[in-house]
Amino acid sequence: MKLSTKTNHSLLVTMAYLAMIVIWSTTPLAIKWSSQGLDFITGVSARMLIGAILALFLALLWHKKIPMHKNARSVYTASAFSIYGSMMMVYWGAQFIPSGLVSVLFGLSPIFTTGFVLLLRNHVSLNEHFGWHKLWGAGVGICGLGIIFIERISRGEEAIMGMLAVLIAVILHTGSAVRIKRLNIPLPALIVTTGGLLFALPLFLLSFLLFADPLPEQLPLRTLWSIVYLGIMGSVVGFVSYYFVLSRLSASTVALATLITPITALLLGKWFNHETITSAIFIGTACVLSGLLIHQFYEPLRKHFFS
CA-CA to 47 of 20 to 30 Å: which in 74, 208, 213, 236? Predict the structure, then answer.
């Protein structure tokens, strides 16, 4: 019985991890499509409204109530900080860079995660091990970022600003992940997702009321379906999978998904949105992924083959 329970738990973690990879791979392209014929603030606000309503319904159905004690509110605030800040930055930046490049930049998450953990390691144990290979991998990844950044310079100021906006989103996302891991409050993943969405929703609605363009008379069907997909899969299923895995694995291990999603997102952007993968993006992406491989796998491989 114990073996069966352990197996079922491992299967759930695996399924959640795979769902996270699929959703993270498709989200950049869906973000791009959700803003066609619509300003980005309306697109992201509509997505979050759908996600918050669905998440609240599911949370009340399965858990009966949303905890609002002090520790829970701290987790929701950390989650909302990431949801609002990173999503606004991603949606704005995605207007000016290929969708696949968004995923490549988010591939730097493990490196930023390590940076945040290093800053906090004297204050709290996050069960992370550090070695010189972490710095080596970070350096290779940053070199890849530099190659991509130089390529974007030739495409004008908007392309540069788009990259910087997405990088800010990565920093906010990883900072929130480490903060939630540090709080270590035992809340179900759906509750964390729901609380974060509910805490972030007023900010999205206020931004919509103050800054969004007037609604168009007609929207492309692909735009509408992209918003619905992001509201359901990106904002609920994706976040639940993310927080479920985050609560059971280390922050850096969770960020390993970003080794896969840059490749799949680039291919999806090329196949379905006719985005060009330049040689600079290809080389830069290869460097980013190589840096991540060194960053995450050098020590386990060394112990396995040479110890």
Answer: 74
